[in-house]
């Protein structure tokens, strides 16, 4: 056996003539394709083209973490001109074409993630076999960064899995499991991990022997195959798809580009690849793509410990292994389940046996849902349940390293809980509160360890929402922050460190927007129209739908607690209180702003208005605003959020502009293609937003006043971000 | 710079493109003004040394349109003529070139000006279509011809509007209206600001027309098929802000630049007679005024509308004057947003620091001095001609008001600005 070594590859050929090309990119947790890796792969392929001894090539990864996570995103982000983008795409397309055209059969042997460029590479091989376990993920996630697969993915995938499957994979960017991939014909074999090595070898031997090993094309339903086999059927599918994405294309141009590229894959081969390339190059210059790239890097940065804390040692010196949760309500159980499935031992503490029983059922049902989703075998589910205790006894807290309190949002109650936690837990234990608006500093004062008290604000529902606000009170130590960040990362969430001020970041920025929506309803605006306009701006959900989800009573509570930092909350509180009095509590009571039947919307509630006869003073004054692409209603709802985001930066609630944007996107779904509130201001122009805020303030009152920071920036022509360099943060 | 005298100046009425003058070619428009400028200067055509005319569209049938016009106007064959193109400032470029030639002694008497028929900018065929026609022309046998014809596709018959191409800057890829949208955003200019400005321009032009100020610089144009045009016809009399507010933005669906607050496509020509200041006794009339200083500056093509700011800054720096020294100011109104942007940039300290490299803002632009007889939004903007009109109108305006100094400036598609300072004796 002879072996050649490269930086990122090991190439070896055995006596049978099977050449194994194993990738292991140094200093990276996951393999990626960057310029150096591609250069090496090019030279390996060049050797293979002229290797008379090689009868078969196997591509695989030497990293246990997986096959390949995709192309290096920072290389893509660093592209400044269309010419550079063209070079990048051409190079990848040519490399994979050469692999496609190798004279000997090629097999991609895949385990773990095989995404983006990784899948495109394996698509250029004759065969793909995968390890059938839960870590195997196969997909083309490019669309999530606002681009399309550019290295032949849009051309080769439809040929392999058919038009419908290819469109859904490319347009949604979802991952397929090993079994799904086998079902749609994306891979030739999904192999049980227990027989992995033997089966891989058997497959290689079969291919070497020239046996027929693939039955890919027969695996799709016959109707689908019939429809896709002719041009008419395909054009029907494509036009249906175009109709479906029509409303989103304006904000996400990559969707339309993907359909174009896939359509071209059925024409002449070079034209198809050219279409793919041209669409990619055009997309890279769109604001949507730049914004999504910035969010990608912001997320990476937020998950880096060093971003938030200088302290690197304490996470090893005082690791968190066991987590206590006080209160097993919806939030408590959610946090408990999250910690549990992330590998922590969990204690949930309730006040009495009755509540504990309810909590036990809640967590059991959450774990059950999780197991179903992950297709865990029964014994693994039982093992999970063995590691969680729901109890009323204080003793269980004596061994925890972190306690998260999720009891009712009343300051006196929290004080008492913190006092008792301080008494019961060992001295190294961090005491955290899941409060969404109360002062963490006050809670810290009722303990003897102010340095180990912080806020850990999860969002509802816990398993869905990726953001966690880590609240740093005045005396919280760096070590505590570091340990909490490490915990949040381990649960797969993204942390943002905020200062201890009412509403922290997300609720504080969100509230003026929700409040304005409530006020507009109180003035008599149409509920459905308000939501519709906001969704057109790019929010996943309108403000009133959101309030119904959250609960009107909860919103009322938050409104009252934010009274001291925000202006003009009184009429909002009045309207919400009126609704609570009438039993309109939102979705949970089947009526809020909307009526609900079986959890689905069923008409609008006739809401009593607190401010009847106060028509909207701004209507018809649209032309007095600088054009920013928004309607009057959108302006009135979105601008408060923009202004509050700037104020949060000005007051150092969160120091970094990128972190504010990331938190708003992850925490509220703020239109991702716009990149977050501060990116939105940048793209509208600081001058424009400043001028329009002044106009809004003159019509609607001081709550719209422009933050000082924004006025200064408009004056000095400064921006929050450097748009040309998405990976660099100010 | 040695002052150069403008002996006489005249222009045709400015007419909305594809309207009353659509049948009159740029050559015919030019001939009318050249002849009339000679008449008003009370000299014969043999007194002319050179003819220099600005023109942007470049009619395909008159490669050097200035020479065609000169000959048709009766300028002797041995006098030279050439056409200049600095896009929207071509009508100023011709004057500045004339001034230079006189100052350096290369000529004594020059006719400068500009002419443009935006109605007659041809529709073009795409390059593909042209290639297909070429194949037909080259085919010799009948089967070859049939084959060549069969290569035509429906798209080949779709013409490309030359006007549209001409009004798009190929470097930035933005058309002129889009550059105005850029400025509206950058300087936070509302739709209302722009509409008010546009309305103001129309009202001033209407007033000027009513007191027959404008007709003093106009020579009437006979229209083929009978009748003649003797008034600018782009004005919309009795227009209101409500009417303007109803118009839809044309360059950006959510933008603020509309047909109502931009200048229209226009046909028209203008000409002046230039001579050295100490050489004016030859003429039967007193000079209209004289050119005292000028500056041309380059800027970002995406913000071409700010050209006047850069040019004015340069002119003030070179001449040592200040904005307050001028009694009347003309800034061409390509777009209301663009003039307002200039106004805001001129008075912005941070713009002066970051873009012009000077400590203090250039100064406040007094609206009472600005475009007092209306501007291109109301009168129209035949691109090759406007520069000349600005000088003529400005000088006449100064004279009529008993004022002395004036400043005229233009923004130029592609990212330039030109500014000219003038003086008159009342």
Terminus-to-terminus distance of chain A: 53 Å
How many β-strand stretches of chain B? 14
DSSP helix fraction of chain B:
25-40%
State Rg of chain B. Answer: 22 Å
Number of strands of chain A: 20
Query: What pair of chains forms the biggest interface?
Result: A-B, 21 and 20 residues
- The DSSP helix count of chain A reads 31
- Main beta sheet of chain B: 10 strands, mixed
The class by helix and strand makeup of chain B works out as alpha+beta
Name the overall outline of chain B.
globular
Structural class of the helices, strands and pairings of chain A? Answer: alpha/beta
Helix content of chain A: 40-55%
Radius of gyration of chain A from the CA trace? Answer: 28 Å
Average pLDDT metric of chain B: 92
> What portion of residues of chain B belong to β-strands?
15-25%
**Arithmetic mean of pLDDT of chain A:** 90
Detail the topology: elements first, then pairings.
The complex is a heterodimer of chains A (730) and B (426).
Chain A: E1 2-5, E2 9-13, E3 18-23, H1 35-49, E4 56-61, H2 73-77, H3 82-100, E5 106-110, E6 113-115, H4 117-123, E7 127-131, E8 137-139, H5 153-161, H6 163-172, E9 175-176, H7 178-184, E10 189-191, H8 196-208, H9 222-228, H10 231-249, H11 253-264, H12 269-284, H13 287-302, H14 305-308, H15 314-317, E11 322-326, H16 330-341, E12 345-349, H17 353-374, H18 378-386, E13 388-391, E14 402-405, H19 411-424, E15 430-433, H20 440-445, E16 453-458, E17 467-472, H21 478-490, E18 494-499, H22 506-522, H23 527-537, H24 543-550, H25 552-561, H26 570-581, E19 594-597, E20 600-604, H27 632-650, H28 657-668, H29 677-684, H30 686-700, H31 708-716
Helix pairs in contact in A: 1-3, 3-12, 4-5, 5-6, 6-11, 10-11, 11-12, 13-28, 16-17, 17-18, 22-26, 22-27, 23-27, 25-26, 27-29, 29-30, 30-31
Chain B: E1 4-11, E2 15-16, H1 26-41, E3 50-54, H2 65-72, E4 80-84, H3 90-103, E5 109-117, E6 123-124, H4 127-138, H5 142-150, E7 160-161, H6 162-166, H7 176-186, H8 191-210, E8 221-222, E9 228-229, H9 241-246, E10 266-276, E11 289-298, H10 307-319, E12 328-331, H11 336-346, H12 349-356, H13 376-379, H14 386-401, E13 405-412, E14 416-423
Parallel strand pairs in B: 3-4, 3-5, 12-13
Antiparallel strand pairs in B: 1-10, 1-11, 2-10, 5-10, 6-7, 8-9, 11-14, 13-14
Helix pairs in contact in B: 1-2, 3-14, 4-5, 7-11
